[in-house]
């Protein structure tokens, strides 16, 4: 039987594991309290030992360690401050999160789990900092300013990724929300002007270090998946079910890229019964597991809306139906 670490890496390296893996990026307080008895903390606020214990007790195969992001909302929201005047997090603060990541990786490996670092890419921190409406207006009023602002934040996150690759992690997860449920936020040509070359350089940095790369964007991603595959991304999540047909995506692109997610946080996980989650997960796993290339998880994270007893049935269904014949 494979360890969780071996199982996850098999999928990321386009092989077939002994069973479908299962992991999440963030676990919110209700599940943390249900499993560990710790109130009012999500997984990003836990000590490294607690994070790993949480994953072990939930039956997950991997632990994700967030980094210190550069998102200057207070200084930039609704305005146009000089980008170079915006100070990134202090090196000591950045290093503290990197040290936490290294400790989580060490402890995860001791339990047979995979470990990854989570960082932002070139796009969503920009509109989150400027404010979405302000960002959209600036694209037409002062595109040069948006490009300078984007580059300033990107330089920090690129360096953050470079440093994270030395922490002992197994792979890198880049989060960059770029789409509505109906498709991309922007005209594709404009979007790719701001995003593609920068994101490609960050992904190449990961691949040059010999590590796999996972990519996260909410929304409809069928238009994005082939570009991610061209850039060297190994797996994309969370493939929200209300706007993506994950079975079709795998049929079209599964020879190039793997998929994670698709169990709806807005459906059975939050408002259904344990039995309905078990059945939904069973059906999804049986459709997605042939040939490998799938990690089962929620369609976003284990949010506050998710009932702990329901999520644990997701994990049970993966164990019951996700195995591959030896």
- Largest sheet features: 7 strands, parallel
For the record, the count of structural domains works out to 1
CATH architecture identity = Alpha-Beta Barrel
Order of helices and strands: HHHEHHEHHHEHEHEHEHHEH
Specify the oligomeric state. Answer: single chain
Given as residue ranges, the uncertain stretches (5+ residues, pLDDT < 50) are none
What is the average per-residue confidence, as pLDDT, rounded to a whole number?
Answer: 98
Task: Return the CATH class.
Answer: Alpha Beta
- Which secondary-structure class do the elements indicate? alpha/beta
Overall 3D form: globular
Instruction: Give me the CATH fold name.
Output: TIM Barrel
CA gyration radius, whole angstroms: 19 Å
Beta strand %:
5-15%
- N-end to C-end Cα span: 10 Å
Concise overview:
The protein has 326 residues and is an alpha/beta fold. It has 14 helices and seven strands.
Describe the structure.
With 326 residues, this protein is of the alpha/beta class. The chain has a single domain (4-321), classed as TIM Barrel, CATH 3.20.20.210. Helix content is 49%, strand content 9%. The protein contains 14 helices and 7 strands. A 7-stranded parallel sheet has the order 1-2-3-4-5-6-7. α3 packs parallel to α5, α6 (124-130) crosses α7 (132-141) and α13 (274-288) packs parallel to α14 (308-321). The longest helix has 22 residues, at 143-164.
